[in-house]
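B., you asked whether I could sanity-check this one before it goes into the benchmark set. Here's the sequence:
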Amino acid sequence: MSKDVLTPQATDFPKWYQEVIAKAEMAENGPARGTMIIRPWGYGIWELVQSSMDALIKATGHVNAYFPLFIPNSFLQKEAKHVGGFAPELAVVTHGGGEKLAEPLVVRPTSETVIGDAMSRWIQSYRDLPMLLNQWANVVRWELRPRLFLRTTEFLWQEGHTAHATWDEAQEETLRILNEVYFPVLDGVLGVPVLRGRKTEAERFAGAVVTYTLEGLMRDGKALQMGTSHNMGENFAKAFEIMYLDRDGERRFAHTTSWGVSTRVIGAVVMAHGDDKGLRLPPAIAPVQAVVLAVKEEAIDACRRLVDELVSRGVRAKLDDRTDQSFGRRAVDYELKGVPIRIEIGPRDLADGKAVVVRRDVEGKQPVSLSELAGRVPPLLDEIATTLRDQALERREQMTRDVAAIDAIDGPGFYRIGWDAMGREDGEAKLRERAYTVRCLVTENGEVPSPEQDDGLIAYVAKAY
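And here's what the prediction gave me:
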């Protein structure tokens, strides 16, 4: 493969990222600044992420719904911290149908307010609780420095919103999403090792009482927030009068939660697994898991039979029979796109009863008997998934250091430091001046701390996207 297909990561990581997105045909900039066109290969990845997460969301008792894109401006004014947190990012519609609107409409940056308004009508008694809702939608946040998948003015996501009778039930829900939905998808399906922890007050979601996060480390040593789960307490319930009659006939405020994961996780997959040849996709989210390349026209029929057998075994397999095009160029295209397995069959391979198997996770080629090949692909896909995750974990561990003072924090990677030793909020403010942030707080043994726990915590610090 030509060495100049992509800029090497070590030379210019941001440029490498942009080139991978473009040359792997994942996405491109839309005509309006900050918008993104997700091309079929990128959207195919998102569909697979979406389906794996949607199954877990439904398995935990949630149902999907849809809420309006346009939200009355007055809704956002009801929760002061919420509107304050989103004010710089809001897109506001002031005219429609050729006339000035009586009330401006906000293009949703998130849906706590409009869903809270609906919950205030739908919830009357304890029998209506818990209310467990989720929606798959687009949102708009006016980004000053857009970057495809990572930060765009419009992006796709899921947002869950729930209401509960008590704080404890809402807290249990907040952690259930973190541990039973997000972690299995991000760490397992996507193969990106993530830290689970609590956000500091400075990093907390606007209007939340407590925010939990999942943080990944990219190959350049920067952190990426890949998902969050928030316990909103009674804040939104009081703002939108989400009340219920308890078993004793007393009217009480509900406790709400919200949580979300977006197309940003596709950017995480690119930056956590990709190499100088392009993407390396975990098989579970690869639109094509195995491509079978006919080297010459004489091999096409055998390649087609192999594809049919792979499909019958549940493999997302594709035939490439474009023998009138350069074999090398075709192979490079699939490397760029991160297809986990490439199978090459030419006339000499057929004569030997073999095919050449190329794994995207490791270097090298391996001859495999054609009679055994279809049966070997599914377990090989599992092996590739494990290898990618293990490689990412090893990189993260190598780029994680323990320090005793914030002055020692200098360079890429995660830094572990005692929350007390760094001076808590004072130290956090000093780090922010140097573009570092506390990504999350964990207990001494690495567990997620409770909302009340402040003593003996460990802060993970890094520069972040």
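One thing to flag: The mean pLDDT is 96. Otherwise nothing jumped out at me.
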